Amino acid sequence: MKTALVIGAGPAGLMAAQELARAGVTVTVAEAKPSPARKFLMAGKSGLNLTKDEPLDRFLAAYSGGVQIREITREFGPEAVMEWARALGQEVFTGSSGRVFPKAMKASPLLRAWLRELADLGVTFNTRWRWQGWQEDVLKFDTPDGVKNITPNATILALGGASWARLGSDAAWVPWLEERGVKTSPFQPTNAGLTVAWSDHMTKHFGAPIKPARLTAGATDVQGEFVISHRGLEGSAIYAVSKALREGADLFVDLVPGRTADDVATRLGKPRGKTSLTNHLRKVLKLGPAQIALLQEFARPLPQDAKDLAALVKALPIRHAGLRPTDEAISVAGGVSFEGLDAGLMLNPMPGVFACGEMLDWEAPTGGYLITGCLATGRRAGRAAAAWLDR
Ligand SMILES: Cc1cc2nc3c(=O)[nH]c(=O)nc-3n(C[C@H](O)[C@H](O)[C@H](O)COP(=O)(O)OP(=O)(O)OC[C@H]3O[C@@H](n4cnc5c(N)ncnc54)[C@H](O)[C@@H]3O)c2cc1C
Description:
FAD/NAD(P)-binding domain; 13 helices; 19 strands; binds flavin-adenine dinucleotide
C-alpha cells in the first residue's frame, strides 16, 4: 500500500491530501494544533477572499518569487478555485473589486465541507501531532501519546509561513530543512502594516479610516484605503505597498485622488479671509479631521502657498519606522527556494519529500492571491507525490 504523510493542515496541505487520496494513496495528515486550518479560519473572519476574478495574465502578474509560482498558479487559477468551492457546495460571489468570496463569507462552512470530503476519501487526521524534524530518515512527532516515529512512502510538507505563529505557522522547521541541504531565504513581512511613532495629536484619530487615498511607493501605485492605528498605519492599501517599502521605497499618500494637482491648487488658492487653514482645507477639499491630522503630522508647518500645499496634499511623504514585525504580517516573503525544488515541488536533496504553500519563497498581495497560490502549490505537490509513488 502506498502511504503519504502530509504535515500541516492549512489550505496547501489539505489540497495536497485531496489530490493524493483521489489518486488512491493512503493519506494521513499530521497537524500540530488541536484542529485544522486555523489561519484559513482566521482569514474568513473579515470575509474569506478566495481568489480574484480578473484576466489570467493580470492575475498571474501579481505573483513574484520566480516563474514557477506563476506556472503552477496558471494551472489552478481563479476559475478553478471558484469551481472547487462550488463543488464543495459553497456558492461564491465576486465583489466590486473582483475579489471572490464564498456567499457565507466565513471559512467554516467551506472547511467543514472540505474535511467531510477528505474523510470520505479516507484521509486520516492526527491533530496535536507536532513534527520535530528527522532522525536519519524517520519523521519524529511529539503527540499526546508520546513520541511517534513515522516513515511514509512520501512526505508533503505544508507548514505555512512565519506569521501569526499562534495559529501554527511558527517556521520551526527552517533549520531542519537547511541541515538537509534545502536552500531557504530568510522570512520577511509582506502585506504588513507600518510602524509610525505618532505625536500625541494623533491619539484621537486612532481607528479612523483614510479613504479614498492613492499610495505611491517606488513603481507601486495603488488606490484604496487604510486605517490610522495606535501602532501606525494598517489596511489593504498599506499592505499593497509593503513589498516596495520593504525594498526601500519612500511612501507618498495622495489624500484627494479624484482631483488633479491644478484643481487642488486652484481650490486652495480661493480667498479664505479669516478662516483657519484647517477649515479652509475642510471646506474647499472636503478633507476630514483624520486626513487633516495626517497632513499636519507629516508636513507641519503647512505652507501658505496654495501650489506648495496642493503638492503636499497630492503627495504627502509618510515618515515611518518600517514594516510591523513579521509575526503580525498577513503573509511572508522568503522560505524554501524554488531553486532547490523540482517541477513537482520535490526537494532536490530529499527524494520523496515535497513542499507547498506559504512555506515556499513566493509572495503576492492580498486579494485572494495567497489562498489561490497555496491551493495551486498544494495541488501540484499532491499530484507530483502521487506520480512519484507510482513511478
Ligand atoms: C488575518 C489573516 C487574514 C488572511 N486573509 C486572507 C484572505 O482573505 N485571502 C487570502 O488569499 N489569504 C489570506 N490570508 C493568508 C492565508 O491565510 C495564508 O496564506 C494561508 O493560510 C497559508 O496556507 P498554508 O497551508 O501554506 O499554511 P497555513 O495555513 O499557515 O497552515 C500551515 C499548517 O501547518 C501546521 N504546522 C506548522 N508547523 C508544524 C509542525 N512542526 N508540525 C505539525 N504541523 C505544523 C500549522 O499548525 C498550520 O495548521 C490571511 C492571513 C491572515 C493572517
